[in-house]
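WARN retry 2 of 3 for item q-0093 after timeout on previous attempt; input resubmitted unchanged.
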Amino acid sequence: MRPAGRPARPRSARPRGRPDDFTVGDVYRHPLGRTITQTDNCWLTLLTQNTAPLHFDAHYAAQTAWQRPLVDSTFTLALVTGQSVADVSRHVFANLGWDEVRLPAPVFEGDTIYSQSTVVMARESKSRPEAGIVRVKTVGYNQDGTVVISFLRTLMVFRRGHGPVGVPAPKEAGADA
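OK item q-0093 returned
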């Protein structure tokens, strides 16, 4: 959505998450990794009423090809989506969907997950002039660099000057007295 003639930002620069900050081809390596714990996996699995013992029963999982519990894939999807928020959807109006979710390798408790997103589409919204539509391809990978998840995500993002205001500034002490 960058206007013609506006210089391209270095691919490693951080956008501010507004539609006009994105250019097709921009790649954002998200700054935070996260090590997945047994508690993360067990809690999310049980919270979502997933009854597959492969995710929370070590004895059962030891009898499978994996020989240990697998991390619930919806946790991996949520984690990698969350990692992208600072760069991609901080000023989200609405998440419009995930497509082509792929899980090419397993995730285990103790793995550390990192991620990056590539902008594949950015345009103005046809129905909401205060917003734009951005689509990214996001990949999550473990500490060894093995890709464990990939997906396309489409979201509507407030344009600059629209949407909720940020964090308010503090008032000076005694100013209300």
